[in-house]
Design a protein that fits this description.
It is a single chain. 30% of the residues lie in helices and 6% in strands. It is mainly α.
């Protein structure tokens, strides 16, 4: 059972977005950071530390 890196709650009932290192974040925290549910699949290519500052900062990093 995975725990969300952001809030520490289980991801089994709150949604599960997995990162390249096997860690995960729950759906509500993912949305709170400004990401859309449709963006969850591409997170397998990134780590939590790439997205922890929110969608806007993530977009700036990935477009540079």
């Amino acid at each position: 059972m995975a725990k969300c890196l952001n809030c520490g709650l289980t991801t089994s009932t709150r949604g599960h977005i997995e990162f390249k290192d096997g860690s995960a974040i729950c759906g509500p925290c993912f949305k709170e950071l400004g990401f859309r549910p449709s963006e969850a699949k591409k997170m397998k290519d990134y780590s939590f530390f790439d997205i922890k500052d929110g969608a806007e900062e993530f977009d700036k990093k990935t477009t540079e």
